[in-house]
Amino acid sequence: MTEPLLRVEDLRVDIDGVPTCDGLTMRTAGERVLVLGGPRALYEATCGLRPVVRGVLRIRGSAPDAAVRDGIVAGAPLDPPLPPKWSVLDYVMWSARLAGHTAGDARTLAKEAIALVQLDAMSGSTMERIAPHARRGVVLAAALATDAAVIALDDPLASLPEEIARSWARIIVQALGDRAWIVFASRISLTSPLAMNADDALMISSSRLDAQGAPAEIAAADRRFVARIHSAHPLDALGAKLSERGARMDIQGAQVLLDLGASVTTADLLAMCAELEATVVEMVPVARPLT
Mean pLDDT over all residues of the chain? Predict the structure, then answer.
């Protein structure tokens, strides 16, 4: 049985001693995966850039350091500093060399990777002379040139204008080809080529796996709201009724977070509130990573 691309059990990852991911458990089910809403530290831990404080993190069954060392995974971080005087070819070629390839093989792999991200014409250009979005192509080419089996990308469409983001996503999908990949992102458009080509998406919030499945199915099934509910009585009874139907309610100060799930409609919620003499005065859908 093939190991999943990514397996996480009770994972804790810290930044400066503070947990940014604590207790996360999940397992990917596809070969082209979106991990949405999780902390950046999860990407960093996957690529061996940040230590695991507690729990298990495995890429194709290997711990991150071993996965990087053995050519199982390579990362394409978001906008890392690049040496301004290096050419595109130099940077990508050195990535291949550092992955253990000989000078001749590294040059061949670098040229192939640069062609895949459609930067052939810029191969001799220095980093300081290419556009910011083209630098993301260089970083992806550097990951591809390692010849790793799995490519992990850190929010590759972040801050890009919609038209450029769509074009870049299309290039990413074409460049990755049949290779397995994991895109870690805060959010992504459902019509992005990345979402359209993904076969598994995992939604994370507060170190908890909220949903998993095909991107379109998750987006269609989204049933989360932020509400304000006025009642002369505690809302515990409403929470119990929702729980009986498979829905969840979480009171956070004056706001109520509702996850109605698949079995409770908004009409059902209003009927429950009327029965308990409670009034929904405001209810707004929660913005989700798949939009």
Answer: 92
